[in-house]
Amino acid sequence: AGIGKCVAMDLARRNARTILACRSRERGQAAVEEIRAATGNPAVVLRLLDTGSLASVRAFARAVLREEPRLDVLVNNAGVTGLPFTITSERLEQTFTTNYLGPFLLTILLLG
């Protein structure tokens, strides 16, 4: 939704292979279908990613590096606000992990 969806729509209009990295399979697939229909670009795909889980970030990065021949653009725009104080299973604060640590780790892993 929001900025991420607008960026994905613009990239798809430019005929780019576009990977939507989403936490929710249902919402992500709905966005994929909407973007494909609006742009005529079939190369819009969904991959699940929760930046609040470093294990999810690592799994996503491994899959992208294995499956994609190249990566030209990375847009890190996921984030949360107003969550109650929560500690993740990895013993990290949830908001800090989702907004900072997860995207940072993702960038570092995709740079190789």
The secondary-structure element order is HEHEHH
Do you know the CATH topology? Rossmann fold
Gyration radius (Cα, Å) is 14 Å
* Beta-strand percentage range: 5-15%
Count of the separate structural domains:
1
What is the helix content? 40-55%
Itemize the secondary structure elements and their pairings.
Elements: H1 2-13, E1 18-22, H2 25-39, E2 44-48, H3 54-67, H4 94-111
Parallel strand pairs: 1-2
Helix pairs in contact: 1-2, 3-4
Walk me through what this model shows.
It is a single chain. It is globular and about 45 Å long. It has one domain (3-111): NAD(P)-binding Rossmann-like Domain (Rossmann fold, 3-Layer(aba) Sandwich). The protein contains 4 helices and 2 strands. Strands 1-2 form a two-stranded parallel ribbon. The N and C termini lie far apart (29 Å). The chain has 112 residues and is mainly alpha-helical. Helix 1 (2-13) packs parallel to helix 2 and helix 3 (54-67) runs parallel beside helix 4.
Key terms:
4 helices, mainly alpha, 112 residues, oxidoreductase, two-stranded parallel sheet, Rossmann fold
TL;DR of this structure?
By secondary structure, the protein is mainly alpha-helical. It is built from four helices and two strands; from the N terminus they run H-E-H-E-H-H.
